[in-house]
Structure formats: structure tokens, C-alpha cells
Fold these 4 entries.
Entry 1:
Amino acid sequence: DWTTGNVIEEQVALIREQVGTKRAICGLSGGVDSAVAAALVQKAIGSQLTCVYVDHGLMRKGETEQVEKDFVAATGVQLKVVDAQERFLDALKGVSDPEEKRKIIGREFIRVFEQAQADIIAEAAEGEDVAFLVQGTLYPDVVESGGGTGTANIKSHHNVGGLPEDLEFELVEPLRKLFKDEVRMVGQELGLPDEIVQRQPFPGPGLGIRIVGEVTKDRLDLLRDADAIAREELTAAGLDRDIWQCPVVLLADVRSVGVQGDGRTYGHPIVLRPVSSEDAMTADWSRLPYDVLAKISTRITNEVADVNRVVLDVTSKPPGTIEWE
Ligand code: XMP
């Protein structure tokens, strides 16, 4: 019978059998799948596992710390953090086109991750074979890639942790039989922090595709502040379970006139995109309580410099996608 305890026990045994005395690498994205996969493998083979976290500077407030501190504290995992913020900003300089941004972020991510892999192999002691790569592939991913659902490729999705073909690694995929809610239960059982286990979907390219316009450090910081306020208020209002996710988007190429104190302002709009959904293939805009929206709007315009307007996206998917880019 299905219990999280049985799943963990079974997977730990299978991982030990597969990996033996060799070494494994796991990329962490900050998301629940890679975190639970890593925690399972850590439980099975301990210090034979090295995790890699590429800090691309496109995460939301607090997320990198959650991986670096809280996840490590909860699991005891050996973690290599690569600070690649400058590199991603350089690569994204002058780029506004959404698909181009996605391609650049995906490409840079793979390059940085491959370098980290090479470093780990180089650092391994003689005779240690770094032979395995851990992936947080879920059951729906398995079905989707094997079954060929024939859906059009509307955006070039990339998953942090999704890697190119020319690897000399064998894959370890301990979540292949699980659905998302089961992964969360396993993560909870393994003692992972709630912020990771209950995290709503967040795109691999991160805030890079939530800035309409060029991605710069200042804009990222601004968006991080606005996003943190929205998340804080949604959590305080107890709405996290009601919504699928709520992208917060900065219209960096748009300005509008406003008035604050006794002065005219000319600032940027922030878009709130709360949606409800079952599987992200279709979605509806969430009817959030007006008082919660009002609180978020007041706080963002008061606390975030250069933002003088907050607007609500009331488009379903289709025709709108969930993300703006
Ligand atoms: P869209 O915008 O296509 O998004 O309606 C559907 C869901 O996918 C997430 N998303 C991504 N997730 N890598 C990811 O891992 C990506 O490149 C990516 N782009 C969008 C989005 O947040 C939503 O949950």
C-alpha cells in the first residue's frame, strides 16, 4: 500500500543499488521536484552526492537563501553554489525579445552547469567515478515525453535541471512514479522546509521573463520587492492554496503619469497575474478579494520606488498565457 514511508524506503534501496559506490550530481533549482529528488538521493548515498545550485540572479527574494541555508540544514547535503549573476546579466544586456531571453538564459544555464559538473569531476579523488545525474522527473513528465501529446510548442520552456543530450551520465530519477502532490508529501516526510515543499510553480527563466523589456539589476531588485509584497499579502490572507500561482510582472518599457505627495511621478506599472488552474494548460484569473488587492496595491506603490501603478490581469488562458513572456 502507498505510504510516503514505503515510497522513501523503496526508492532509497533502488538508488543505493543503482549508484553503488559511485558519485552523483544533482542540480537544484529551488523548486520542489529537484529538492525532493536530491533529498531522497542524499538519504540513500549521503556524501556520494554533490548538489549544484546555479545562482542566475533571477530568483525571487529569499529563494537562493532557502536553498543555500534551509535546504542544506534540513538535508545535510553537500552543495556547490555557483554565483553566475554577472554572467547572466551580461548575456541579457540589451535583449527585450521574450524568446531570445529564454534561449539566452537556457544556454547560459547549461554552460554554467556543465562547468560545475566538470569541476566536480576534476575535484573527485582518484578512482572516484562521477557517473550519475539526478533529475526530478515526475510521472506526468514521463508520460508527456513518451506519449507525444502533440501540443504546439508555444514557448521554449526550459526547466532548470533539464539538460542537453551529450552527457556521459546515467540518470537517477527517483520521482518517476510520482505525481506532484505525492512529491510534496514525500518532501514533507523528509523534513524539507515548507517554503520549498509547498512552493507554487515558478518558471526556470525566473524573473527574466517577468520583466517586459531589458533585464537589468535595478529592475530585478525592483521586481523582487514588489513580488515579495504580493506574496506576503497573499500568504497573510490565507490565499496560497486557492491560487495556482501569481506572477508579478514589471512593465519596464511602459511609464505612466501619477501623483504622489505634491509631485508628479512618471513611473512603471506592476501587473498582478493571479490564476487558478489544474495543470497550467488552461487557467482562469483568480477572483481575489478586493481588500487584498487594495492592500497589495497600496503597499507596492508606497514601498517600491519608481512604481506608481498596480494593474490586475483579468485574462484567462487561453487566450493569455500565465506568464507574460
Ligand atoms: P504559460 O506562461 O505557458 O505557463 O501559460 C504555464 C506554466 O509553466 C510555467 N513556465 C515555465 N516553467 N520553465 C518552467 O519550468 C519555463 O521556461 C516556463 N515558462 C513558463 C509557468 O509559470 C506556468 O506555471
Note: The pocket of xanthosine-5'-monophosphate is lined by residues 155, 157-159, 201, 203-205, 245, 280, 317, 321-323 (CB under 6 Å).
Entry 2:
Amino acid sequence: STSSPSTSTSSTHFARRCFSSESAPARKVAVLGAAGGIGQPLALLMKLNPLVSSLSLYDIAGTPGVAADVSHINTRSEVAGYMGEAQLAQALDGCDLVIIPAGVPRKPGMTRDDLFNINAGIVKTLCTAIAKYCPHALVNMISNPVNSTVPIAAEIFKKAGTYDEKRLFGVTTLDVVRARTFFAGKANVNVADVNVPVVGGHAGITILPLFSQAAPKGSNLSDEEITALTKRTQDGGTEVVEAKAGKGSATLSMAYAGAVFADACLKGLNGVPDIVECSYVQSNITDIPFFASKVRLGKNGVEEILGLGPMSDFEKEGLEKLKPELLSSIEKGVKFANQ
Ligand code: NAI
């Protein structure tokens, strides 16, 4: 006796859906710079994410050790380590999502823009390979200065003919994480309930937290307190750089933030509705071509760029002040990519 093919196919699907503990679709995620200060804890957090089926850890050195270590954790994903440019193709092949924390971090006294010369070259190399080996992957750019590295990536992808503005993201989640934490502390509300949009860019005054839209409301906060919270959010990275006194910048909180954003991207790819995160993307909600704001994530990456919403006079002023710096960082990136 033979059962009809359609029955056997659908029952196989049904069985897979109901009885597999790994019902989420297969997703390959690469971390480029995986042996670094951010890369290692980010590799750990991605290994803990059940949406990942294959975790690809790439760096110019140190990845075999990180990969062997992380691979012993008894969670879903297979883990492979790749070292050196000769293995970059394999690391990227078939990726759904590529996270880039490769590059040098700040030391005390440095701005993110001081990293430009080294990191711009690294990002260029990595994005050239992404265009070749996984042109449809979502790209989460962590390497600083994000205000410039995202436009660099866009230009590299344009040259390769693979650019899709819906798939390129500057990771600004750490600014949101900080704004939530600092706000909850001042407003005396439960940090787990707090959300604060952060818009603009990812450096100094280009980081614009919209505390007037914080939920739950911090109605007890004075203008002076809002000004201080804004400044602390903008300088959060520098706070860590100084505390680490020459040993680098935020790595653990950044890995957490990177893992939160990557998880949101994967949920979007998998069709989970209403996934909204702030991110620095190609945008036309202002007259600046790349801009961070709330973005709805979906099967193709950016599903919708949400508007800025109602802002206080203080925030409107901050928005006008950040535009020239953000625009010049973008132009610097575009120029570098085209030279
Ligand atoms: P790190 O120096 O500890 O690690 C960087 C890693 O990148 C190293 O393992 C290095 O070998 C690797 N690397 C260098 N060149 C590479 C290449 N061509 N291909 C692949 N890997 C390469 O630095 P850390 O602390 O992990 O920071 C990494 C980047 O993330 C920095 O640019 C930093 O400014 C940025 N960052 C961004 C944040 C954000 O909010 N977007 C927050 C904190 C840091």
C-alpha cells in the first residue's frame, strides 16, 4: 500500500513542526571579529540563541580557540571557527546575518572618529567579501565610527551591485540600553519596563535620546535632570573607556546590545510581527541620508522606518545641532569608499 505523496509530505512537515525541539528555520549567523573583546561574549550570546542553527566565528587570529570553547555548550547551533582571509569565503557562505565587531576600540582621549583610518579599511575588506559570498545577508555593523562605517558599507555594496538598503544596519542598540538604564535609575521606575527611543547617529552629540517619549513617563524629572541624562547617554561609551583606562571600550554591554539587535533581526526574518528596534539605516525621515530611528523589522530586513514622533523643544534643538556632524561623518565614509 502506498500513501499519496501529498499526505506523506504534509505529515512530515507536521511532524517536524510539532515534534522537533528545533522548529525555528535554519539560520546561519557569522560574527566577524569574533575573537575580540566584543566578539567573544557576542559569540557566547549567539550560541545561546535558539534561532541560530549555524554559528560562524571569523577573525584574523584566535578563532579556533573561541570556536572550540563555545562549541561545547549544549545548545542548538553548530559552531565553526575561521581564521584569516583565506577562510573568509567559507565563513560567509550561506549566511542569513553577519555581525561585524571587527576593528580597534577607543582608548582614553580618543573620539570614535579617531578610529576611522584603521576601521574603515577593515570594514571595506569585510563588506567586499560579504557582497561576494553572502550578498543577501542582513549586516549588523558594530565597528566604529558607525556614522561612517555604515555609509562605507553601502558604497562598497553599491559598487558590487548588491546594495539593498533594507539589509544594512548600524547597531545603536547600546545607546538605547544605556538610555533605558540611566532613565530608570533617575525616574525610579522598573528598568525592565522602560523604553526610550534614541535617534540620530552613534557618536557624541549625534546620539539623541528622546526622553520625552520614554515609557513609562518620567514626569517627575526636571529639565536639568533630562539634560544630564542626555549628556550621560551621549558620553556613556567614554565613561567605560575611561574606567577601562586604556584597556578598550564597552565590550560586555555591547555584546549584550549586539545580541538583542541580532535576535530582533532573526525574529523579523522568521516573520515574527511587530519587531521594532532603533537602528542607524538609510533613511528619508530627515534631510540626512543615514539616520537612526525606530525601525520595524521583517522578512526582508527593514520593513518600515518609523517617524521621529513628537519631540520636546530641547530634543528639536538637539536634532538641529547633530545634523552637520552626522552629515560630515557620512560624507567622510562615502569619500573613503570611492577613493
Ligand atoms: P578588540 O580589539 O577587542 O577586538 C576586535 C577584533 O577584531 C580583534 O579580535 C581583531 O583581531 C579583529 N580584527 C581586526 N581586523 C580584522 C579583520 N580584518 N577581519 C576580522 N577581524 C579583524 O575590539 P572590541 O572592543 O571588540 O571593539 C570592536 C569594535 O566595536 C571597535 O571598532 C569599537 O569601537 C566598536 N564598538 C562599537 C560599539 C557600538 O555601540 N556600535 C560599542 C563598543 C565598541
Note: Residues 32-33, 35-39, 59-61, 101-106, 115, 119, 122, 125-126, 142-144, 146, 171, 174, 202, 248-251, 254 surround NAI (CB under 6 Å).
Entry 3:
Amino acid sequence: TGRLEGKVAVVTAAGQGIGRATALAFAREGAHVLASDLDAGKLAGLDGPSIATAQLDVTDAAAITAYAQAAGPADILFNCAGIVHAGSLLDASDNDFDRAVDINVRSQFRMIRAFLPGMIARGGGSIINMSSVSGVPAGVPNRFVYATTKAAVIGLTRSVAIDYVKAGIRCNAIAPGTVQSPSLEERIRAQGDYEQARAAFVARQPMGRLGTPEEIAELAVYLGSDLSAYTTGHVHVIDGGLSL
Ligand code: NAD
């Protein structure tokens, strides 16, 4: 039997990349998965006996409330949605900053607020928040807004963990290094010289390769499952050695 047999798992940004790989891994491990994304088109092909898909914008508070009400109680919540702003402090506008806080951080506040009461009523749950090694523990150039929001995720994670530990809730963060995903591919292409830009991303990974969404999904499965019952409030780094 799977490691998530009988569990209900909610995954945001499940249309592509790490979110999609995780929705598939959760389903493979026996969970009933509620997979959502801003872009409904990206959810194509995910629907099936163990995955129900829906369009959901994690910045839309009313939509999140309605989604959670329709979903009912969940055992696992994976807050995967996030965007990358490329640039240093002097490259960032107020709007860039606000947008990133909204999508990368406030979204997690809103999703947890919507699903936590159901978890508490059930006597437990596992919340997994997407951070990044650029938040902690590494310093990554030209990721000012991104790193600021991904570090905020860690404070959010610890606070939820300590406040609800007695209610059986665990809350952990995942901090990946560079992972091959559609948006990473876009960031590489945006730099002009494709081969050179890709080589630069690979060069900062001591293992000499990028991570795969499936490798990150395995960590999410572990954190969602009862096998990780003794860990809460921590950042689980999975970065190919980037932060060494
Ligand atoms: P991606 O960036 O390729 O895809 C992101 C998905 O998020 C898309 O399907 C998009 O439609 C969805 N999305 C965007 N805004 C949304 C919103 N408002 N509401 C709901 N969904 C929305 O996927 P990825 O690169 O695997 O990134 C997933 C998460 O992992 C992000 O939080 C990212 O910051 C984090 N992360 C990625 C890497 C990496 O190298 N790829 C490294 C560390 C952390």
C-alpha cells in the first residue's frame, strides 16, 4: 500500500513543475488529490480517479474560501504556488514586491487559514510550504524580491508549527535548489544565449546537474506522510549541494 493511503491532499500550482509532479506522486501513494492552478489549461491530463482538478488563483481570498468549503477537510496541504522576480533591489518596483508577497507568502496564509480548521477538527494534518534555498540558507544573486518572500515563508512555517503543534498539526518548508521546470526553462531562454545561461544554472549546482520535479515530489510525499511524524517547523533543504 502507498504511503498516503486514505489521505486527502491539496496541492496548489499543480499545473506544471514541482506541483504537478507532487500531485502525481501523492496520487501514486494512495492519496485523493485536489490539484489546482491559476491556469486551468495546465491541469489538462491530471484529472482521474484519484486527482480532481480545479482552477484556483491563490491570490483570490474569496475563491480560496469557496474552494476549501467545497473540498471539505484535508490531511495534507502543499502550498506550492510561487513566482520568481529576477533582479536586485534596485531592479524591483513596489508592484513587483507586492505581487511576489501576494503569490509567494500571503497565498500560504490564506490557504492555511482555509484548511487548518478542518485539520484541527480531524486531530491532525501536514502542511508543506514551498520556500527556496535562496530564502535560507544560500545567497543567490539577482533574487532580491524572491529571496525576501521565500525567507518570509520560513517565519510563517515556524509560527504555524509552534502554534498548532499540540493540535497535531505539522508544518514544514521545502527549500529546493535549481529544479528543471517550465518556468526555469523560461528564465534560461529569457537570458538570450540559451546554452550559456543553462550552463550557469548548472554550474552553481555542485552535483553538476539540475534537480527534477520528481525528486522534490518525493520529499513532499515524505513530509505529507506519517513517516515524517516527528518533524515540524523546519526547512528541508534539497538543493544538490547549492548551499554547501
Ligand atoms: P513553475 O514555476 O514552472 O510553475 C508554477 C505554476 O504556478 C504554474 O503552473 C502557474 O500557472 C502557477 N501559478 C502562478 N501563479 C499562480 C496563482 N496566483 N495561483 C495559482 N497558481 C499559480 O513551477 P516550479 O518551477 O516547479 O515552481 C513551483 C514552486 O517551487 C514555486 O513556489 C517556486 O518558487 C518553487 N521553487 C522552484 C525552484 C526551481 O528551480 N524551479 C527552486 C526553488 C523553489
Note: The chain has one domain: 8-178+213-238.
Entry 4:
Amino acid sequence: MPLTTSEIQALDSAHYMHPFTDHKALAEKGARVITRGEGVYIWDSEGNKILDGMSGLWCVNVGYGRKELVEAAVKQMEVLPYYNSFFQTTNVPAVQLADRIIKLAGERYSHVLFGSSGSESNDTIVRMVRHYWTTLGQPERSVIISRKNAYHGSTMCGASLGGMSGMHAQGGLPIPGIVHIEQPYHFGLAPDQDKDAFGIEAAGWLEQKILEVGADKVAAFIGEPVQGAGGVIIPPKTYWPEIQRICDKYGILLICDEVICGFGRLGAWFGSELMGAKPDLMTFAKGVTSGYIPLGGVVVGKRVAEVLIEKGGEFNHGYTYSGHPVACAVALANLDLIEKEGLVERVRDETGPHLAHCFAALAEHPLVAGAETFGMVAGLVLMKDKHQHLAFDEDLEVGMICRKHCFAHGLIMRAVGDRMIVAPPLAMTKEQIDEMVRLIRLCLDATLQELKE
Ligand code: PLP
């Protein structure tokens, strides 16, 4: 007999510790049990169909139920389910995937170091850039500059690179040698303030921090091309070129966290391509397998790889699952699908512009003070009085009210403070975008109604 929803919820509550969850609050209502997915929809154990506006957690880029990925996993498991790359050994899918990723990333890059997640990838770069500078005889160049409100993972290094104060408060973070500057959040600029000028100003905070720390102590700067979990913060177009200029000026390594932006989400294989940045290292995860199986890694630029390989000796770093053959086989099948269906181009030319158009129309809603999109990520800023630029009282948690209505209307949309965000599967059609936007409008109306009561 299959378990009933309440039996599953009881087991969940008794034994399953959820990531980023208030368990007391969860126990009161019971977890929603997700049982299956197809296309851009998921279903819960009560048979409710839900439009997944978040691609799981920014990852199910080709949508659910893709047989090609399942078949690739099964085929590889039958032949070689696992082997490591530690004993001067390698495996075919890992080599093929590294080659494929380098071709997609471009000629600035030469190697890929695999792990299983975005957090591991960001841990890897902390050790890698420090090893790089030590190999070059500059071990004092160890400080990494990141940004406030950024999310780079949950491990000690990932959470330290991240700039989430709530995460730092638990566990005495950041670890030494990681410092933060403000994010380039331009929403709320006065109408006569120039966005491009703000982009230059915000990048200038990096230079200020470099001078404060001492240029000879700074190893690298890390940032997402578009900050995702921080609330879909899309920088002005002047920001990244200026960041690049500053990194070049001081010889600092530039790292782009492409965990969300990579593999097509912004309408290019890597988001940094569109931003005018030329990172020395890129971290990735999520979209590389469309979340069907855990895989992440670091794309290593020639500048770093040549030093590590020619002079660095053994880099004492790696994971049991680095280059896992099944994960790499699934990634190859996923990249095949993305290419065959032209998803990157579709996001750039068709679905991305359509999403932008629809979100611009949502900005007319009385609750919405601003709407921003880039490729297949989008955010709405909710405000109490958009004409007076008056924010809601934080304690009201208006985002959570709206999220509750999304749940009730069969839509997954994420709340980050007062910002409501979506990152739908790249395989979503224009008609499905229309359906999602129709639901968002209903949820905004329901939120407005509740606030009036
Ligand atoms: N970096 C970014 C930009 C992310 O959004 C995330 C996860 O959401 C991570 C890193 C961490 O990835 P993972 O959860 O696979 O460890």
C-alpha cells in the first residue's frame, strides 16, 4: 500500500531535516509532497498540478520527464556506474564533458575540475586561487572580495563567499580572508539618477575595497553575472566592464559564479559572455545536468591552469565524485538536448524577450513598483505605495503572503524579501509564459485583497 499524504508528512516531520526551513512552522501545516514532474509542471500527492516557475531551484532547464537524460544515466550505469580520477585514471564521459564545456566556454579556458554541487565548486576556487598565488610566490595574496547579499552555497567557504548575514550569524562566518562590498542594486534610484553612472560607481566599491585591503593582498573577486538568490539583481550594463577593468588594473583574478546563469539561462552559454566580463574562473552546477543528477565544477582559464599545471605540482584537492561517469553522461545528454532544441537561442530571441514584455505589463499592477528580467530570470518589486516609493513594513513579510497565494493558485514563485522572482525552465513555451503571467496576476490580486482586509 502506498503511503498517504499525512503518513508521508508525519515521517517527514519526524526524521527529515529540510534545508533552509523553520521546522516548527513546517510541522504545523505539513510539507507538500511532490510526486512527479512533466514538462514545466509538477504534481503533489493530492493530485494538484503546479506550474514550476522556479525550475526546481533554478536548475530543471530542459523541463521534467526528459527520457533522453534517463536513458543516458541507465546506459552509463550498466557500463560503468562509478570510477574515480585519483589513480591516474579517467573515464570517457568525464573527458568528453570537459572537452565540450571548454568548447562552449571559449578559448580563454583549458580545463574543468568537477565536483557535485555549486557549493563544492565555490569551495574549490577558494583553494585554487590561493594555491595559484602561492605557486607564483605571492602567498599573501589570499583575500577574496565578494558581495553582500550574494549566495554562493552553504559550505563554510561557499557561505563565507556568500554575503547573507543570516548565514554568517550561524557558524561564525565569514572565514578569514573573505570580505564583501555592496551589490549593484539600483532599484530605488531617483528618476533623474543615471543607471549607467551608478554601475560605474558600484564597480568603484571594488576598487575602494582593494585599496583598503591592500592590492598586494587581494587574490580574486567573485560575483554572479546576475545575482539570483539575492533577488534577481540585474546590474547596469556599465558594471561588469568596469569590474573587469579594475581586476585587470590590479592583476586580480576574476571569478564568475555561473551556477544559475550558466548553460543558457540568460540567453548565452555563460552569463558573463553577455556582461562584458572575461572571468579567469567560472563555477557551475545546476543547469549542466538540468538538475537530474548532482554535478558541478570549475572552468579553469589558461591563466590559472598553466601556472597550476606547469609549476603548481600536485593540487591536493578533489572529491570522490569528481568526474562521476553517470553524472557526466547525463550532462552530455542534457547539452545535446539544449543544442538540439536551440534553447539558448530561444531564450535570447524568443522566450526571454516575451517574458520581458509580459513582466513590463505586470509593472502596471498597483502592488508592483518595478519589474526586471534578463533571459529567463525575472523579478517584481512589491511596494506599499509605488508612487511614493514607500516599502512595506518588513515584519509584514509581503513576499511570503504573495508566495502563499502562488501556492494556492498552483504556481511556484519565490519570495526574496519584497521581491517575487521566477526562473522558469528554458524549455517553457511562449504560451506557457502567458499562463504563468496570468497566474502571477491572480496571485498579486489576491495579495492586494488580503492586504486591504
Ligand atoms: N552559487 C549560486 C549562484 C547558487 O545560486 C547556488 C545555489 O542556489 C550555489 C552556488 C550553491 O549550489 P549548490 O546548492 O548546488 O551547492
Note: The chain has two domains: 32-62+342-452, 69-340.
